[in-house]
Amino acid sequence: MTAAVLFGGGCFWCIEPAFSALKGVSLSQAGYSGGTTPYPTYEQVCSQKTGHIEVVQVRYDSDVIDFETLLKVFFSLHDPTTLDRQGHDIGSQYASAIFYTTAEQQKQAADYIKKLEEKLQKPVVTKLQPAQVFWPAEPEHYNYYLNNSFAPYSVNVIQPKLRAFMKNFEPLIKDPREALKKT
User: Fold this and answer.
1) SS3 string of the chain?
2) Whole-angstrom Cα distance, residue 28 to residue 50?
3) Is 97 in contact with 8 (CB distance < 8 Å)?
4) What is the average per-residue pLDDT within 82-87?
5) CA geometry: angle at 164 spanning 148 and 99, to 5°?
6) What is the pLDDT of residue 175?
7) Fewer Cβ close by (within 10 Å): the C or N end of the chain?
8) CA nearest 94: which of 67, 72, 125?
9) Residue 27 CA from chain centroid, whole number
10) Alpha-carbon span 156 to 173, nearest angstrom
């Protein structure tokens, strides 16, 4: 069965390629959600005046990959204990957030966050909210890593995250020889 969720885990360039590589994921698209400005641009979102968060819309086949697995991947890709920040990326647009589309997703995410807090022994600041309008990002943000794998941000920030992802989730990757071949 096809399902969808929006994940915000810092810069969308970092999490989009990982979700794209997973078996059962049919779409991993960078965009914005959670704010009030219609049709926001990257520049507007970066101004921190729109209320939007950089997110990735993930559409998946729940018969192939379950929501709990997506949560494991999501929380492995960023630090859910830092408020509005991931490394050197600072601002409310980089908040950790899950915009759920079903009551079951909400329950599973809340339970997962509770267990994660117990494990980490510190608060998880991930926002858990019902999905709002998803505004697709501008085309230059689609497949950013694959199209810009030698850019300094890709080399220094995205690649280390993707290498860890590939190592930890290899059995879930569509084709490990092809997925993220530029890492």
Assistant:
1) CEEEEEEEECCHHHHHHHHHCECCEEEEEEEEECCCCCCCCHHHHHCCCCCCEEEEEEEEECCCCCHHHHHHHHHHCCCCCCCCEECCEECHHHCEEEEECCHHHHHHHHHHHHHHHHHHCCCCCCEEEECCCCEECCHHHCCHHHHCCCCHHHHHHHHHHHHHHHHHHHHHECCCCCCCCCC
2) 23
3) yes
4) 94
5) 80
6) 79
7) N
8) 125
9) 12
10) 23
Cβ burial, residue 153 (10 Å; 0-12/13-18/19+): middle
Write the pLDDT tens digit of every residue in 91-128. Answer: 999 999 999 999 999 999 999 999 999 999 999 999 99
| pTM for the predicted model, two decimal places | 0.94
Supply angle C-alpha 142, 146, 149, rounded to 5: 120
Query: Where in the sequence numbering do the catalytic residues fall?
Result: 11
Which CATH architecture does the domain made up of 2-172 adopt?
2-Layer Sandwich (3.30)
Cβ 170 vs Cβ 42: under 8 Å: no
- Please, which residues have CB within 8 angstroms of residue 38's CB and are 6 or more apart in sequence? 133, 135
